Amino acid sequence: MQNHYPPTLKKLISALSSLPGIGEKSASRLSLFLLSKPGLCEFLGDLIKELPFRVRLCKFCRNLSEEEVCGICKDKTRERELLCIVENPVNLLHLESIGIYKGYYYVLHYLLSPKEGFGPKELGLDSLLHLIQERGVKEVILALSPTLSGEATSAYIAEILKPFPLTITKLACGIPMGMEIQFADPLTLKKAFQGREHLKGG
Amino acid sequence: MQNHYPPTLKKLISALSSLPGIGEKSASRLSLFLLSKPGLCEFLGDLIKELPFRVRLCKFCRNLSEEEVCGICKDKTRERELLCIVENPVNLLHLESIGIYKGYYYVLHYLLSPKEGFGPKELGLDSLLHLIQERGVKEVILALSPTLSGEATSAYIAEILKPFPLTITKLACGIPMGMEIQFADPLTLKKAFQGREHLKGG
Ligand SMILES: [Zn+2]
Ligand SMILES: [Zn+2]
């Protein structure tokens, strides 16, 4: 279909197609749109080129930051004893936007996956231990998604943190608020039974 | 939601959101993906910056080209007497991919739209007339989408070409009214070529 496109356009279409969620058709439409906007090409091209040089990981929590220390770690009003472990910056932002948690974070960026070569080093577990000791963290909250790899990663980190004088917690799993029981999947229901809340008696 | 993103990342997300078909959510996902691929940032950034400098319009047919004259205009085996007028490069490619037409093309890039300020100049009608005379074109085939503005543009061009010793045809409406050419199936398009409507001369 693109036989008669100029080589640069073909290269751009193929590069854009390699991005997540962009098929060849939208890559083609985007490329033609860019072609009609030279000013945007200059601006966007520079931004993309500079991105990896400007944005780095916070040296404490590995959140995205344009400075050595991110805005959250700089915020001295937060609860110093709480450290919430999240998979990625998107999850961190989601928790922040809800505004129910006021401690600090640690961003793994990967979940444990021996197959894909993501081990303790990629997850930054060394600097996590360092941070916990340096900050005097008293509770580590595991806030990974309750997926297969999320659960495995939580279990692994909990095991590693066992020797330290810490409380280790994990976000509760169960039926989402507002969902009718008949729509809850079997695994969720099983978790909900296992983790049932004690209301009275013993 | 993006309060805690670094400024460069915010700027990139906002720039990507301005592209057609990309919402803030996919712009955010794309930006984070790019952040994890420094090599791709370098490559893609350069491509986008260079795009408008490398790709231009063929001096004859206004098709996209990286050289002064495009591959189709360079192809001497085509039927010199036929000139097919298309709206844009995507439509040209669609016709080429079906392979039923072996003449040359002329790309308007716009349809007539006084409201949006697209008049004869934007459509390149001067150089169209020049091309027709220089090439000794005998039949001009109007292959614009049978939409309101496509029909208006076809009528306008037919009117302008009236004084010239040419056959003027228009793709037959086997194509459903309102459907854009790039979505028409090969058989429908073939029918449309075969049954092209006779507007003048011949
Ligand atoms: Zn930080
Ligand atoms: Zn050409």
Automatic annotation (TrEMBL), chains A, B:
GO terms for MF: DNA binding; zinc ion binding
Asked whether the UniProt record includes Metal-binding among its keywords, one would answer yes
Query: What is one GO biological process annotated to this record?
Result: DNA recombination
Domain Toprim, by residue range, is 81-176
Q: Zinc fingers (C4-type) span which residues?
A: 58-73
Domain of life, per lineage: Bacteria
Tell me the keywords, alphabetical order: DNA damage, DNA recombination, DNA repair, Metal-binding, Zinc, Zinc-finger
Query: What's this protein's family per the entry?
Result: Belongs to the RecR family.
Q: Which NCBIfam families match?
A: recR
Provide the function of this protein. Answer: May play a role in DNA repair. It seems to be involved in an RecBC-independent recombinational process of DNA repair. It may act with RecF and RecO.
Would you tell me the protein name for this molecule?
Recombination protein RecR
Q: Which organism does this record belong to?
A: Caldimicrobium thiodismutans
Taxonomic classification, please?
A: Bacteria, Pseudomonadati, Thermodesulfobacteriota, Thermodesulfobacteria, Thermodesulfobacteriales
The primary gene name is recR
